[in-house]
Amino acid sequence: MSERELRPTKLNLIKVRRRLAVAVKILRLLRNKREVLLSTIFREIKRAEALSAEVGPAWAAVLAGYRRVSSLMGVRGTDALALSVTRSPEVRVARRLVFGIPYYEVKVVCDPRTFYGPATTPSGLDRFLRDFSEALTKLARLASLEAAIYRLAFELRRTQRTINALEHYIIPRYRQAVKYISTYLEEREREELVKIKMVRDVLHARG
């Protein structure tokens, strides 16, 4: 607050009280926002931990399947089949909001049946591509969850800094200003009352 705003006048007292009320309201909203962010982050962390426990075994199954297919088709046959694939997995991005903070959930849609002709491939390829599709989907979900957690954590830190500024600096200064101006005005009012009483006593003595 500037020196002009701290001048002990009734108008400044009204202004400072209004600003104090606004600051307290903002603090309350930010605390609510912090609680929502915390609960959302904890929920997403649990989802990420559960998914992370599935990703490792899923990719282990993919690697084992690749070895089986390679042993049946040979390295050249496997490479030729991979190069013949013209379709790519479909990536879908869903936008989500928490207190106006956007973050994104990525999903991979992969249908292995559209990638090759079954008449020219070994039967083990179906299982391998199904495992690969599931592993890729889980990995994409895990990556989007980790990105969302990072973004929400960044917003949580920023919110906490604002809360700290309001709690320890802005609101205490407004309260101190209100106390200072109120005390000054009350003392001046008492002085005015004393002066009025003295004038009244003088006039009464003369009359």
Order of helices and strands: HEEH
| Share of residues in helices | over 70%
Mean pLDDT: 83
Query: In oligomeric terms, what are we looking at?
Result: single chain
From the spread of the alpha carbons, the general shape counts as rod-shaped
CATH class equals: Mainly Alpha
What separation lies between the terminal Cα atoms? 50 Å
The gyration radius over C-alpha positions equals 35 Å
CATH names the topology as Helix Hairpins
The CATH architecture designation is: Orthogonal Bundle
Structural class: mainly alpha
Please tally the β strands and state the result: 2
Spans of at least 5 consecutive residues with low confidence:
none
Strand order of the largest sheet: 1-2
Number of domain modules: 1
Strand content bin: 5-15%
Number of helices: 2
Biggest sheet architecture: 2 strands, antiparallel
Key attributes of the depicted protein:
single chain; 207 residues; mainly alpha; Helix Hairpins; two-stranded antiparallel ribbon; 2 helices; 76% helix; rod-shaped
Furnish the topology, listing elements before pairings.
Layout: H1 10-84, E1 90-98, E2 101-109, H2 124-206
Antiparallel strand pairs: 1-2
Helix pairs in contact: 1-2
Structure description:
This protein is mainly alpha-helical and 207 residues long. The protein has one domain: Helix Hairpins, CATH 1.10.287. The protein is built from two helices and two strands; from the N terminus they run αββα. It has a two-stranded antiparallel sheet. Strand 1 and strand 2 form a beta hairpin. Helix 1 runs antiparallel to helix 2. The relative contact order is 0.15. The model has no long low-confidence stretch (mean pLDDT 83).
